[in-house]
Amino acid sequence: MKSTPLLLLALIGIAFTCTHAFADVALFAAQELQLKDAIPNETEWDRPFEDPLPALLTTSKDKQLVQLGNCRDYLAVRNQITGSDNDADYRVLVFQTVPCIALSLLKTASIAKQSALPKNFHSYTNTAFYPATLWPAVSDEEQKSRAWSTGTLLTYSKKTALRKINTETLGLEMSGYGFHITLLARGDFNHDGWEDAAFRWKGYALQGSYIDSRLVVLTRTTENSGFLELPLKQLLAK
């Protein structure tokens, strides 16, 4: 009977741990997305871009240059876009529509039942946790490299920490190139019960014209393990 209090304490501890581990994790949308709630409403899809974005659409029949006025316009033709009226405008198009893809993920997101993600990514700068695929691989050789496709930023860059660019953005520079990541949204985007995080990613050359943008989704199911980058095509197809 003397062991009963200890047994009760142990059971309470187990119950608390289980409850904590499986507590629902609310959806999160960054201020940049300008949403009233974490899930976009109908009017927020129609919020106009600063300027209409010229997009070249390619179908099996022809090519057509159209002007995209908002996220609804963009998402309706996203898979048909193959360019713009020039390279500079295409880079602007890709950069400014990254939040639209984040809205699309939030629209279909589930509330995560579990999370192994850090509460504050901005303080999570150890490159050992981030996949090497965040590095802007500008050549075919880099993209085919196993070190890039399966390694970490630490093993690939030999840099131990991401740099805090501002209060919301982390980045890394080396060998004439660099990238920034900015958190846009959190939620269960692939519906496996675990929390995922979506970032605006921007790659650039320190000298030269290279610049690229995309949405990156990272996740993990074990604390203190490395992040996995989820394929965006699969998430948008759900």
What class, by secondary structure content? alpha+beta
Total domain count = 2
Q: Kindly state the number of beta strands.
A: 10
Largest sheet: 7 strands, antiparallel
Low-confidence stretches: 6-20
| Spatial shape | globular
Q: What is the strand content?
A: 25-35%
Helix fraction bin: 25-40%
* Through-space gap between termini: 55 Å
Overall pLDDT level: 91
C-alpha Rg, in Å?
21 Å
SSE topology:
Layout (H helix, E strand, L loop, with lengths): L3 H18 L6 E2 L18 E11 L4 E8 H7 L3 E3 L3 H10 L1 H11 L31 H5 L1 H5 L2 H5 L5 E2 L4 E6 L2 E11 L8 E10 L5 E9 L8 E3 L1 H6 L1
Antiparallel strand pairs: 1-7, 2-3, 2-4, 5-6, 6-7, 7-8, 8-9, 9-10
Features:
10 strands; alpha+beta; 7-stranded antiparallel β-sheet; 238 residues; 28% helix; 3-stranded antiparallel β-sheet; 2 domains; 8 helices; globular
